[in-house]
Structure formats: structure tokens, C-alpha cells
Specification:
Length: 322
């Protein structure tokens, strides 16, 4: 037997908002917080790109110039992410009854792809620069001191942006914003590597400038792969972590009439969760009592688990092998 309930869902032949988020205040607030991260990052990356490119060219720092190119790519994909985050806030419709939240996973895929592409470009440019220096075919010009200030300013700004993005991603559950936080962290490493290369360049060890750039590129690529893996798992409907399973079992264990929790299958739709749960109850209960118990369990889960939007509970007498 199965009971299902979700307060606020309109009863009709075709339900067009299965997660009941169309009129949720938190959805509007969540969208505004996510967009604030994207807009702040976009403006900051544009400003930093101009600063680093100018300082890298006039200050003769290959590492800072590469970091500036990285910021240019950030501006491009932040524009793409801005569009996708906006699309993810669209209300549910008949073709998308669970909403459009998966656009956030697509946005994360875009971020991961750009991060890896940028890492490869920085790595290739750094290796070429190092080879030219070894072959003595490159014109080596002294690095100017102001390039170090540009790198340090970037690190400070990116730390602030990363902390802000992480805080918002934790409160909204947005995988796209989490990916942007990871990208800000990458930029910290990139600027740190550029700063180290600049310091050695100022000391006369110019060969270490492109080598530092190559090492940073490897770190950036690793993070990009992690972003791609996480966003792909979201799109492939990978079962959420055991934390959700444990949380559901913990909540239901407080109901003495529920004799066992036999299975918990949870699915994510953007930040929201839908769960299919099988419980064991006394086989002597009437269907009406079973429905009341299932509805009570659902209400309890909604009140205890944030972002849980849809619950289907199947109940029957406990299995003999349990």
C-alpha cells in the first residue's frame, strides 16, 4: 500500500509543480542570493582581468599575463552561468513538473569545462615559455615590482569572493554557486603561483616564473575535473549521500508505530529532494490507520529535512528477513 501527500500541491489531472516550489518564498530568496554571487564574480573578474593583463604586459610577467587570460575566460563563462542560473529559477510547467533546477548542474558543467580548458592553455603557455628560456630564444626582460602588488590584490579579492560564494552555496544548496566557489579558489592558487614566479623573477630567477605557472595549471585542472564529476553525477541522478538516508531513518525512528524502515531512495532536483520510502508497520492495522500513519510520517519528514519537497511512502508488514 502506498500513501503520498504534499501540502500545497494543487489536485488536478496533470500536476505541473510536483515539488511545490512555484510560490515558495525561499525560492525567490535563493535565486537572488545565487545571482548576487554570479554578478559580483562577473564584475570582479572583469576588473581583475584588466588589471592583470595591463600589469603583466607592462611589468613583463608571463605568469601574471597568463593569470589575466584566466580572468578573461572567467568573464566569458560567468556570463553563461548567469543566463543558466536565471533559467533555473523558472517555475514548473507541464513539460518540466519538477522545475528547471537542473540548469544549475548544466551551469556547473560549463564552469568545469572552462576551468579545464583554461588550465590546459596556461600549462601549454608556461611550458613553451620555459622551453624558450632554456633554448635562450626568448627575450628576457626584468620583472617590475608592481606586478607583485597586482597578484597580492587578486589573492585578497578572490579569498573574499570564495568565502562569500561558499556561504551562499551552503545556504541555497546550489551546485552552480559551489562550482563558482571552487573556481575562485583556483584563481587564488593561480595568483599565488604568479606571485611566487614574480618574486623569483625579481630575484633574477626568471625561469621559475613559467614553471610556477605550469604547477598552478595542474592544480586548476584537478579542481575542474572534480567540478565536472559532481555536476555529471547530479545530471545522471546519482543517489544522494548516505547522510540523507541516515537522516530519514533517524526521523522515522521516533515514530513507535513504524517497526522498520526497509528502503530509502532519494533523488535530487537541483537543491530539492524527492524520496521514495518503504516502511514496515503492524499488519493488523486498517488501511485507514496505515494512511494516517504514513501521512504523519511524511509531515514529520517535511518539518525535519530542509529542501525535502516530495515524499512517497509505501507501507506493509515488516519483511520476515528484516
Amino acid at each position: 500500500m502506498t500513501a503520498e501527500k504534499n501540502s500545497g500541491i494543487r489536485s488536478s489531472a496533470v500536476e505541473t509543480d510536483l515539488l511545490s516550489t512555484r510560490n515558495a518564498r525561499e525560492l525567490l530568496g535563493r535565486t537572488l542570493r545565487n545571482e548576487s554571487v554570479v554578478n559580483l564574480g562577473l564584475a570582479s573578474n572583469l576588473l581583475l582581468a584588466l588589471i592583470k593583463l595591463s600589469a603583466g604586459i607592462f611589468g613583463h610577467s608571463k605568469a601574471l599575463l597568463a593569470d589575466g587570460i584566466n580572468s578573461i575566460s572567467d568573464v566569458v563563462y560567468f556570463l553563461v552561468v548567469r543566463i543558466l542560473v536565471k533559467l533555473s529559477a523558472q517555475p514548473a510547467d507541464e513539460e518540466h513538473p519538477y522545475g528547471h533546477h537542473q540548469f544549475e548542474s548544466i551551469a556547473a558543467l560549463v564552469v568545469g569545462s572552462f576551468v579545464i580548458t583554461t588550465a590546459l592553455a596556461i600549462f601549454w603557455d608556461s611550458i613553451n615559455s620555459a622551453f624558450d628560456m632554456f633554448a635562450k630564444t626568448a627575450v628576457i626582460q626584468p620583472v617590475r615590482f608592481f606586478t607583485l602588488w597586482a597578484a597580492l590584490a587578486t589573492i585578497i579579492i578572490k579569498i573574499i569572493l570564495m568565502m562569500h560564494a561558499r556561504a551562499v552555496s551552503r545556504s541555497t544548496g546550489s551546485i552552480a554557486v559551489a562550482a563558482l566557489a571552487s573556481d575562485h579558489r583556483n584563481d587564488i592558487f593561480a595568483s599565488l603561483g604568479a606571485g611566487i614566479g614574480i618574486i623569483f623573477g625579481l630575484l633574477g630567477y626568471t625561469i621559475l616564473d613559467p614553471i610556477a605557472g605550469a604547477m598552478v595549471a595542474a592544480i586548476v585542472a584537478k579542481t575542474g575535473i572534480g567540478i565536472l564529476r559532481e555536476s555529471a553525477n547530479e545530471l545522471m541522478d546519482t543517489i544522494p549521500s548516505s547522510q540523507i538516508d541516515n537522516c530519514v531513518r533517524s526521523v522515522l525512528s521516533s515514530v513507535p508505530e513504524i517497526l522498520s524502515v526497509e528502503s530509502v531512495h532519494a533523488h535530487r532536483f537541483g537543491p530539492y529532494i524527492m524520496a521514495n520510502i518503504t516502511i514496515g508497520i503492524n499488519g493488523q492495522l486498517t488501511v485507514s490507520d496505515g494512511n494516517k500513519l504514513a501521512h504523519y510520517a511524511e509531515s514529520l519528514l517535511y518539518s525535519k529535512i530542509e529542501m525535502l519537497r516530495r515524499v512517497y511512502i509505501h507501507y506493509h508488514p515488516p519483511s520476515k528477513n528484516k
